[in-house]
Amino acid sequence: MDRVRLAGLYGVDVTYRPTADTEVPVPEDTIVAVLAALGVDASTHYAVKDAVAAYEQREGNRLLDPCTVLRAGHDTLDAVLARLPRGSGLTVASRTGEPLAAAPTAPGRYALRATTPDGRVSTGDLVVAPERLPGPPERTFGFMAQLYSTLSSRSWGMGDLADLADLAAWSGRTLGAGFVQINPLHAAVPGHPTDPSPYRPSSRRFPDPVYLRVEEVPEYAYLPTGAREQVAGLLAEAAVLRDGVLAKDALIDRDAVWALKARALEVLRAVPLSPGRRAAYADFLAEQGQALDDHATWSALAELHGPDWHAWPPGLRDPRSPQVARARSELLERVDFHAWLTWLTDGQLGAAQRSARDAGMPVGVVHDLAVGVHPAGSDAWSMQDVLAAGISVGAPPDAFNSRGQDWGLPPWRPDALAATGYAPYRDLVARMLRHAGGLRMDHVMGLFRLWWVPQGRPPTEGTYVRYDARAMLGLLALEAYEAGAVVIGEDLGTVEPGVREELADRGVLGTSVLWFERDYSGADPERRPLAPSAWREACLATATTHDLPSTAARLTGEHVGLRHRLGLLGRPLEEEQAEDAAEVAEWIALLGRLGLLPEGPVDEEEVVKAVHRFLARTPARMVGVWLPDTVGDRRPQNLPGTSTEYPNWRLPVAGADGRPVTLEELAASPRLHALAEELRGALATRPTRL
After folding, report:
1. How many alpha carbons lie under 13 Å from residue 439 in its C-beta half-sphere?
2. Spatial distance between the Cα atoms of 175 and 684, rounded to a whole number of angstroms
3. What is the DSSP string of 305-342?
4. Which H/E stretch holds residue 366?
5. What Enzyme Commission number(s) appear in the record (predicted)?
6. How many domains does the chain have?
7. What is the pLDDT of residues 463-508, one digit of tens each?
8. From CA 213, how far away is CA 97, in angstroms rounded?
9. In a domain? residue 66
10. How far apart are CA 99 and CA 396, in angstroms?
11. Domain range holding 39?
């Protein structure tokens, strides 16, 4: 029982529920391994007793937490005062030190100071989060796109930030779209080949320069003749690469794109910055501080020693070692080159959001925050003190996957985050919102708990570790409030009771996907499709996502055939096809009963329109249109359960015939325009319930 108590003190669950009516005990070895990753020895009875005593003594002596998070209109400082010895004093000041006459109620950051009668003094941060985040200022629709897949006739073989700015400007001005939601643009781990998944990045804090449009860099205009000829040759190679990708059945080759861009940027690097540009770069370096220095240093070291820092010489594995300090000095030019790339990318990210807002978008660009980072990458190297070593994030076994999942991502240590006042987390969120009108939180349930899998164990032998969700949500809410951004939580899959309600109460929008919206209340044993009026308002409503079949593939059943060809079906093909066809028929019947389909026979394009008419009829604050759906694309961008068997994250947007479609062709597509016109009209006539 002592070990159970110790686990509870550190937020480590000792049981879990794969289904609502089943409780499974967590293996003892898992509990010991997870506690060890939290710096706690639970290997013996005596070690457990010592660990419990040490925890209680530490907490008993604590006056203030490094960061206290309150919610405006709900929380007061009474709970903080109650922890202090009788007769203690508690004062609140602004971050610059000016005492405040009254308890703060306005959202913001403050300083706390506690003084006990025996003279002990403790200080800490105080964060007052807004009571609730406002949603978008109006009901709106927008496009959901994987940016790399959205090529224009000017990009270098994959979509880039100039394409994003153009997509936002065109769709906002011409179609009245309110946002563009894109995949994570986090820096990738270089490799041969590079892992193309945007959800397993090297760094979540900094963007990937592969998304740069070289010609948009201001210094491009001042290339001297010889250098201009060099870049012109690279542009010609890029055109060949782009034309190859736009050929049917070709794939996006991120490594080839970066090889060309890197050579061009090396040439551009020789063009001196103007005084104003140099001053702006100096300000950027000062603002980004140690975090950027670490990322640029890791990038320079990876060029020499390979992308996995675990295999570097021992002295370089610690970012604060004397060897790293010496290497940083010796590699100063390469370190500065990578910092410069980050600055250029940041500038083009800002230009894309300005383009969106100038086009009248009420939200603009919605960026995506992946749930974790690659264990070999930049963030894992520089933040070893707050990431759990020997642990991977995943998902427990459930009714859909009896083996569970291991995502290969090291999780935050909740104890280490709390000890730092959540500084790394706050910094990450602030960086993501720097040029965003919205932020999508991948696996938002991770703010509450994550499934930890000890290294060497299968996902079935993991356990949930809990986080201080009130603090995590409060800090997220304050950063979004100050940025004027909406927050969308990806809350699909296994969600603990109460989580969706808490998120909605905070103003965090959920994600509702058509095919999953059924009546699970128990009132309908057949779990029929949910009527539009029964959908939640606080959500982004969509027909599909990057991990699911396109709407055309769903309607035609082609996604079942694809999974059959890849050996991914758990039952005979005929059974899977019959069940899938019945599910689609249910939805089409509902669309017909609601009058969303025209009389008589209908084609696929008409059903896709009806699906989106249905989404517009829900009270959802935001309606997302999967960009490939606008031209009948059959292929998913990512097929879970595959790696080399399917070209995940490497497919350009294509039409129903499989031929890739450029951004210019999308902008001229009658099918896309007709769908957008339907949505714009439907949303204008469906007032919100607020």
Report:
1. 27
2. 13
3. H-S-GGGS-GGGSSTTSHHHHHHHHHTHHHHHHHHHHH
4. strand 364-369
5. 2.4.1.25
6. 3
7. 999 999 999 999 999 999 999 999 999 999 889 999 999 999 999 9
8. 44
9. yes
10. 49
11. 2-129
Res 690: pLDDT: 38
DSSP 158-197: S--HHHHHHHHHHIIIII---EEEE---EEPPP-TTPP--
User: Collapsing DSSP states into helix, strand and coil, what is residue 486?
Assistant: strand
* CA–CA distances in Å: residue 690 to residues 372, 542, 612, 619, 687: 35, 20, 22, 9, 9
- The answer on 151 and 279 residing in a single domain is no
pLDDT at 686 over 60: no
Residue located via tokens 């290497």: 327
Average pLDDT over residues 264-286: 98
**CA distance linking residue 579 with residue 584, whole number of Å:** 9
Q: Mention every residue, 6+ apart, whose C-beta is less than 8 A from residue 642.
A: 566, 568, 648
Residue 566 lies in a domain: yes
Q: Are residues 83 and 119 in the same domain?
A: yes
Q: Are residues 165 and 121 in the same domain?
A: no
> Is 444 part of a structural domain of the chain?
no
Residue with tokens 């009668």: 117
Q: pTM of this prediction?
A: 0.96
Residue 322 has pLDDT above 50, yes or no: yes
Last residue of a domain, one of 290, 320, 341: 341
Q: Taking the chain, what is the end-to-end CA distance rounded to the nearest angstrom?
A: 49
Pairing of strands 22-25, 15-19: antiparallel
**Average of per-residue pLDDT across 135-153:** 96
Q: Tell me the average pLDDT of the chain.
A: 95
Q: Are residues 219 and 97 in the same domain?
A: no
Do 117 and 266 share a domain, yes or no?
no
* DSSP SS3 for 249: coil
Number of Cβ within 10 Å of residue 78's Cβ equals 8
Measure the CA–CA gap between 536 and 690, rounded to whole angstroms.
12
Say yes or no to pLDDT of 41 above 70. Answer: yes
The CA distance from 585 to 592, in Å, is 10
Sequence-separated (6 or more) residues with CB below 8 Å from residue 263: 234
Which amino acid does the sequence have at 225?
A: T
Above 80 in pLDDT, residue 522? no
The CA distance from 174 to 680, in Å, is 11
Do 286 and 154 belong to one domain? Answer: no
Which residues have CB under 8 Å from 673's CB, separation 6+?
A: 175
Residue 365, strand partner residues: 180
Pair of tokens at residue 407? 């995502």
Q: What is the Cβ-side half-sphere exposure of residue 675, based on CA atoms within 13 angstroms?
A: 32
In a domain, 403, yes or no: no
Both 300 and 232 in a single domain?
A: yes
Q: Of 296, 320, 341, which residue is a domain's last?
A: 341
| Structure tokens, 310 | 């675990």
Contact 653, 635 (CB under 8 A): no
Nearest to 432 by CA among 600, 247, 616, 203: 203
Residue type, 375: P
pLDDT of residue 399: 66
Q: Let me know whether 543 and 680 are in one domain.
A: yes
Mean pLDDT lowest for which of 82-96, 397-411, 580-594, 654-668? 397-411
